[in-house]
Amino acid sequence: MRTRFRALSVSMLLAAALFLAVQGIAVAETLKEKVREFQLDNGMTFLVVERHEAPVAIMAVVFSVGSANERPNITGMSHLLEHMMFKGTEMMGTEDYKKDRKYVEKTDVLGERTIELRKEIGEWRFEKFKSLSAQVIASFTDEENERIGTNVYEQNKLVAEKIGTMDPLPDSLTSVPRLIADMGTDYMKLYIEYELAWGEINKLLAEQREFMKKEELWEIYMNNGTRFLNAGTSNDFTIYFVYLPSNRLELFMVMESDRMEYPVFREFWSERDVVMEERRLAENDPNDVLDEAFNSVAFTASSYSWPVLGWMSDLQTIDRKELEAYHRIYYAPNNATAVIVGDVDVKEVKKLAKKYFGPISAQAPSPAVETREPEQRGERRIIVEHTANPKLQVGWHKPTYGHPDMPVFTVMQQVLGGGRTARLYKSVYEKKELTMEAPQVSTGPGDLYDNLFIIAAMPQQPHTLEDVEGAIYEEIEKLKKEPVTDRELQRVKNMIDAQQIRQMGSNLGIAFTLGMGNLYFGDYNEIFRFYDQVKEVTKDDIMRVADTYLTERNRTVGHRVKVEEKGKEGEAEEQIDQMVLRAYIMALPQEEQMAVVQKFQGMRSEAEGMAYAKELWEQAKAAGFVKEKPEEKKTEE
Q1: Residues 579 and 615 in one domain
Q2: φ, ψ for residue 341, nearest 5 deg
Q3: Residue 32 domain-assigned?
Q4: In 420-485, which residue ranges form alpha helices assigned H by DSSP?
Q5: In degrees rounded to 5, what are phi and psi of residue 486?
Q6: Is the confidence at residue 283, as pLDDT, over 80?
Q7: CB–CB of 38/271 below 8 Å?
Q8: Is pLDDT of 6 > 50?
Q9: Angle, to 10 degrees, between the axis of helix 486-503 and the axis of helix 539-549?
Q10: Which of 186-200, 377-391, 523-537 has the weakest average pLDDT?
Q11: What's the rounded Cα separation, in Å, for the pair 62 and 330?
Q12: Where do runs of H (alpha helix) occur along 299-369?
C-alpha cells in the first residue's frame, strides 16, 4: 500500500476525525429511513444509503477483527494483515502467478528457518552477534561499499565471510561465558547461517520483483478516479475504504471480493520488517510509550492490554502460514460488513454483491473474545521516563455500549472535556493555568468491550503532575456532589446534536456512523435508541455514575516524567500534542478536513508526514488551540 496514513505518528488523530461517530453515536432520524440493508447467503451484510447530490460514493468493507481478537504470540497480527492485503492477489500484483508462487514458497522456507535459528541462538546472544554485524558493516572499505551498493544478499554474504574468518574474535564476545558456543552447539555458526538466510531471502525477493506489478491495486483505483484509498486497524475492527466515482461501483466489487478470497501475501518477509519499523517508531513516540505502559497496567486480563501494533517479540516470530490461517478465520464474508453511501442504486448494489461476493464461502464463526477484565480492587500507578515533556493520564474502568450507564458517560465526557465551555477547560486550563493545553477526555483503548474513561493532560511549568492530578480530582468530586446546571446539561446535549448533524453532512460521515454502529451495537438501528437514551440523561444520572465509577479504587494513574537524554544539550524540539491537533482539525469546515486527509493520502514517507504535521501544528497555534508558554508571553511583552 503506497499510503502511509496509518504509519505516521499523526495518523490516529486523523482516524479519530473520521470516526467521530464512535465517541457520541447519534444520527438524524431521517437517516434511518434511507438505509437499505441486505445480507448474502454467505452471511455478508451490506448497508446502502442512496445520496444523489454528486456522482461519487464512499465504499468500505469493515471486518470484525482487531488487536483484541489476538492472543499472546501473535499480537500485531491484525495490523500486519492489513499491510499484506495490499500485496495483490492471484490476478493482481504479478505477471506470472505460477512463477510468483514458487518464489513465495522458497522465501517461506528460508524465513521460517530464520525464526528457528533466532530462537535456538537465544535473544541475548542474538543481540550481541547483531551488534558485531553492525560493526563489521561499518568497517567496510569504500571499494566494498561501492561493490555491494544496496544489495543485501552481497552485504550479508560479506558479513558472514568476515565474521567466519575473524581471528581473534573481539573481547566483548569471548569474555561472555557460553556466548559463542555451549554444550556442543556453535552459536556463532548458527548466526552466520541466519545472516546468509536473510541474504538469500532478499536475493529471491529481488528476482521476484522483476515480474511483480507492485502497487497494482493502488494504481487501478487511482486511475479510476479515487479521491482517497486507505485502511486502518484498531483494537476492535479493520476497515478498507475508497472514495470513487459512482460509476466505478462494479470495480469496487471486483477488487474487494478478489482480495477477500484470493489474497497472495507476497513480500511477506520484507513487509514484516516494515511493520517492525513501525513498532520501533512507536517505542520512541512519547505518547505511544505512555499509552502502551498505561494500558498494560490498567488491564490485567482484557486483550486491550496490548497495542494494535503488537509486541516486537511476537512480530519477530510470526510467519506467513500463521497469517494465512488468521485471514481465513477473520476475513470471511460472514465476518464482514460492506457500507456504501453515495450516488448508487441499491438494486444495482445488490445485483453486483451477489455476483462478486456471493460465491465466496462462509467460514465457521470466528472465536468470540470471552475474557473480561475483573473488578479492580485498588489504585494502580505507573511511572514512565522519557525525554518528552511530562504528561498525566488517569483512567477509570467503565462499561461500554449496551450498558445503561454508557449514555451517561457520553454526556459526562462532554461536561468535562467538550470544548472551551467544558469544566476542565475553564478551571484547570483557563482559570488555574495548570496545563499546556486543555485536558483531554476520551474513552478507550477500544469500545467493543468494557474500557476506560480517560483524562490526559500536560502540566504547564512550573506546575507539576501532582498539581494537575489534584485539580482534576477536585472537578471529579464536584461532579459527584454538585448537580450540573440545567443550562450546562442542555449545552452538552446540543453539542452532541451538532456533532452528529455535521457528521451526517457527508457520505463519509454516514458510512462510518453506520459501519461503527453495526459493529458496536450489532445492529445500526440501535444507534437511534442510543441517541434517545443520551437525551434522557439527567443531572442525578451524572452524579450517580461519577460516584460509582470515578473512584480511587477503580483508577489507574500514569505519570510520564521528563529525563534528560544522555549526550544531548540545548533546547528540545517542541512536542506536538496529537489530541490538541485532532481538536483543531475537527474544528475545521468539512471541506478543509477532507483536504487534510487527502494531503496525507499523497505522502510517501514518515518525514513528509511529520513535516505536514508541524505545519498543521503552527496553524493550530495561530488559531488559539495551543496555549502560549509563560516565557513566550514574557518575550512578547
Answers
A1: yes
A2: -135, 125
A3: no
A4: 423-424, 465-481
A5: -60, -40
A6: yes
A7: no
A8: no
A9: 90
A10: 523-537
A11: 11
A12: 312-315, 320-330, 346-356
Q: What is the CA radius of gyration of the chain?
A: 26
Are 424 and 551 members of one domain? yes
Q: What is the distance between the alpha carbons of residues 226 and 598, in angstroms, rounded to a whole number?
A: 11
- Tally Cβ neighbours within 10 Å of residue 490: 11
- Picking from 266, 298, 316, the residue whose alpha carbon sits closest to that of residue 381 is 298
Give the C-alpha separation, 401 to 25, whole Å.
10
Look-up of cell digits 496553524: 619
Identify whether the C-beta of residue 335 lies closer than 8 Å to the C-beta of residue 363.
Answer: yes
Residues whose CB is less than 8 angstroms from the CB of residue 91 and which lie 6 or more positions away in sequence, other chains included: 97, 258, 262
Residues 456 and 383 sit within 8 Å (Cβ to Cβ) = no
Q: 110 and 76, same structural domain? A: no
Helix, strand, coil distribution of the chain in percent, nearest 5: 55, 15, 35
> What amino acid occupies position 111?
G
C-alpha cell at position 291:
499509552
Write phi, then psi, for 457 (nearest 5 degrees): -160, 150
Domain-located, residue 17: no
As a whole-number percent, the residues of the chain with pLDDT over 70 amount to 88
Encode 254-279: b = buried (16+ Cβ within 10 Å), e = exposed. bbbbbbbbebbbbbbbebbeebbebb
pLDDT at 603: 54
Size of the chain in residues: 637
| Measured distance CA(307)–CA(286) in Å, rounded | 14
The Cα 63–Cα 237 span in angstroms is 6
Q: Whole-angstrom Cα distance, residue 69 to residue 393?
A: 26
CA pair distance 430, 437, nearest whole angstrom: 9
Q: Which of 554, 546, 549 has its CA nearest to residue 375?
A: 554
How far is 517 from 512, CA to CA, in rounded Å?
8
Find how far residue 516's CA is from the centre of its chain: 16
Q: How far apart are CA 311 and CA 297, in angstroms?
A: 15
CATH code: domain of residue 430: 3.30.830.10
Rounded to whole angstroms, how far apart are CA atoms 394 and 380?
Answer: 10
Q: Are residues 198 and 257 in the same domain?
A: no
Residue matched to cell numbers 493482481: 92
The pLDDT value recorded for residue 591 is 63
Burial of 22 (C-beta count, 10 Å sphere; 0-12/13-18/19+): buried
Give the pLDDT confidence of 174-183 residue by residue, as tens digits. Answer: 999 999 999 9
SS3 268: helix
Residue 444 CA to its chain's centroid (Å): 12
Beta-bridge mates of residue 59: 242, 340
Lookup result for grid cell 510467519:
319
CB 514 within 8 A of CB 337: no
- Of the candidates 411, 412, 589, 409, the residue with the CA atom closest to the CA atom of residue 496: 411
Q: Is the peptide bond before 168 cis (omega within 30 degrees of 0)?
A: yes
CA end-to-end distance (rounded Å), the chain: 50
Sign of CA dihedral 213, 218, 220, 222: negative
Which amino acid is it at 487? R
Domains: count for the chain: 3
455-490 pLDDT, tens digit per residue, is 999 999 999 999 999 999 999 999 999 999 999 999
